[in-house]
Request: fold
Amino acid sequence: MDKPEIIEKPDPYAALRFREFRSYLGMRFFFTFAYQMQAVIIGFHIYHLTKDPLALGLVGLCEAIPAIGIALYGGYVADKSEKRGLLIKIFSGVFLCSLVMLIVTMKQMHPYIPESYIIPVMYFMVFGIGLARGFFGPTSFSIMAQIIPKKLYPNSSTWNSSSYMLASIVGPAAGGLIYGFFGITVTYMVIIFFILIALTCIFFLKEHPPRFIPKESIVKSLTEGVQFVFKNKMMLGAMSLDLFSVFFGGAVALLPVFANDILKVGPEGLGYMRAAASGGAVLTMLAMAKISPMNKPWRNLLIAVTGFGLSIICYGLSKNFYVTLFFLFTEGAFDSISVLIRSTIMQLLTPDEMRGRVSAVNSMFIGSSNEIGAFESGLTAKLMRTVPAVVFGGGMTIIVAGITYLKTKSLLTLSIQEINEQKTQ
Reply:
């Protein structure tokens, strides 16, 4: 009699068994925590000073312009550089920008710094953080692929995204609450403290020398990365879908207006609103560690983006704080599904020697689409008022998903294994 076949159950904690990956997650978590805190208080503080929703959009634009402008070069540098040393330089730059914002917003400095200088300086520091982001995305994407075996990419993507989303829950809530109860100076001190913890985590990573040694001009190297993306139908489709859906669905930038003027819940309520979306995301991520959406990833990606757009419309129309929290929760849940699917596809389809440059192209599509979407939301809110702007953005997101469905029907039935086999198509 034949022996029964033994089927090994997938280990949901497989990636966490690598010490270096745990250090990477610590870096990502504490940096995201600080970054999300900072995003909340910058937006609320600037809106408090200006009462202009367009000023919120300009915050996103100040970060997106340098992040997009430097992205391709950042990917080139990430591919040809030692990764740990580059991360230390990037985080040091973010630390200095946050330190400057702490100084200019301190009450003790008001006799020496005119109030009219505060907002321009904050915009300039956001610009500096955008420059750092242009290098951070490709570098972190490259190093993660070097510390985890390829067969564990889906599992590592789940934990990486969960770490990001968990920090995105705690960060905004902590930012709003600390700002509301203790003021902006204490909040910036906490932000700087967590940036330093993230910087410390980098020192627990190994040195990762480059796997790409440029033998041609920088222009040719960058062109190679762009051409790879545009020749891969699924990768290009995933990036394009995210770009346009998040561009029109970037209404999260208007949450300070909802918190201050519509729902009247103040900075504490803003923290809970930001945390609600991240709460839905992290719970969904944890569920996906056991129940993977990768059986038919493209179909599930389109469903998730459609749900994302519907959630935006519903919370835009809500006049009740708790109903708004619920739809922000579902927005985060749907967004987390699309994040996991896209990140797994990116990891699987990208050759090791091109990870920095491909990630740079991805950053131009995805990494800055949130900030450009924030500007779009701020501008449409200025032109057509806040609630119509949010509903418009959600509706356009659904339309983008519908158009993508019509153009990519052949991808709907593919499994993750079939996608991996088609990586050169």
The chain has 16 helices and no strands. The two ends are 44 Å apart (CA to CA). Confidence is low (pLDDT under 50) at residues 1-7.
